Amino acid sequence: MFKFFVTILLLQATFFVFSQKIIAEKEILKLMGCRFEITATAKDKKAAQKAIEVGIAEIQRIENLISEWDSATQTSAINKMAGIAPVKVDKELFDLIYRCNKISGLTQGAFDISFASMDKIWNFDKNEHDMPDNIVVKEAAKHINWEKIILNAQNNTVFLQEKGMKIGFGAIGKGYSANKAKVEMQKIPGVLGGIVNASGDLLTWGVSNNPSGWSIQIADPKNINKPLAWLQLNNISIVTSGDYEKYFSNNGKRYSHIINPKTGYPITDIKSVTIICPDAELSDALATSICVLGVSQGIELINKLNEVECLIVDANDKIHTSDKLQLNYYK
Ligand code: ADP
Ligand code: MG
């Protein structure tokens, strides 16, 4: 079990393909401030270990590019120069920000990496806190506006137009790094499959123990110990966002670490959103976005997208799913 309401259990592994034994190697470690579990399958132990090694190195490399906490990263340089001057960055970071802005457009601003201007206002440490002054929140929220993240593709510069603006990749970084780790792991000769599991956000590919793919169980929000449904996940990601890990409480209400960019306030009326789609980066970004958009707007958006499905647990533990989500329910 990794997540709260939508708990994911990977079924245990003994690997066989064409009657030949496939071994699975796994490493658990902290990366990007969260628990990663990286698994690779191969016929030869060394290949699986090598794949894990390159996967970890790739995630560390990305962390050094996108972290807004580490003052040495290019992301921090962009933040420091907010309202002052454009900053030239690697094409990789430029492209990531470009895609973030595309997702902001797709979600009508529900997803916005410039939410980070709020990070001094809220403290999601699971404790009880007083609410900050509404004027202070409104003032900081003025700096959230993805349309003021100015990208110049000719020289790969990024400019935050206003002083006080700040960007952060908390809602997309794990998904992006899972995608990239997979690409590097697949390059290792002999590697047959794998999973990148970032605190319950999964990306699976290739050969697993089960002939029809990696199998995942989804817990019932009303009874965490009893799975509600299961699904086969091959070459796909499943990502959950919600109020279970990072939040604070005030007056009996739980405030999640996901901020509504329009108000600057954390969301309160959704417990979790799970997105299932082949691209882990998109799953990650959309899971956060749908938390902001809410049940009806969220499902409407997901139903318009190809190969993207979702499951939402609302504040009353009611489950809502997109039209084409196929779960195998336990009787
Ligand atoms: P988790 O890290 O628990 O998987 P998410 O993927 O939903 O959850 O990411 C939440 C993080 O995203 C927050 O901690 C914050 O860093 C960032 N964030 C919060 N609100 C937004 C938003 N509206 N748009 C983009 N990023 C956000
Ligand atoms: Mg996310």
Summarize this structure as a short list of keywords or feature phrases.
331 residues, alpha+beta, four-stranded antiparallel sheet, 7 helices, 18 strands, 31% strand, globular, binds adenosine-5'-diphosphate, binds magnesium ion
Q: Any overview of this molecule?
A:
- With 331 residues, this protein is of the alpha+beta class.
- It has one domain (1-331): ApbE-like domains (T-fold, Roll).
- Helix content is 27%, strand content 31%.
- The protein is built from 7 helices and 18 strands.
- It has helices at 45-66, 74-80, 91-106, 134-141, 173-186, 280-293, 295-304, and strands at 8-10, 15-17, 20-31, 34-42, 87-88, 149-152, 157-160, 191-198, 201-206, 214-220, 223-233, 236-242, 247-250, 253-256, 270-277, 309-314, 319-321, 328-329.
- It has a 9-stranded antiparallel beta sheet, covered by helices on one side. A 4-stranded antiparallel beta sheet has the order 1-10-11-18, with no helix packed on it. It has a 3-stranded antiparallel beta sheet with strand order 5-7-6, with helices on one face.
- Helix 1 (45-66) runs antiparallel to helix 5 (173-186) and helix 5 (173-186) packs antiparallel against helix 6 (280-293).
- It is globular.
- It starts with 7 loop residues before the first strand and ends with a strand.
- 45% of the residues are buried.
- Residues 4-19 have low confidence and may be disordered.
- It binds adenosine-5'-diphosphate (ADP) and magnesium ion.
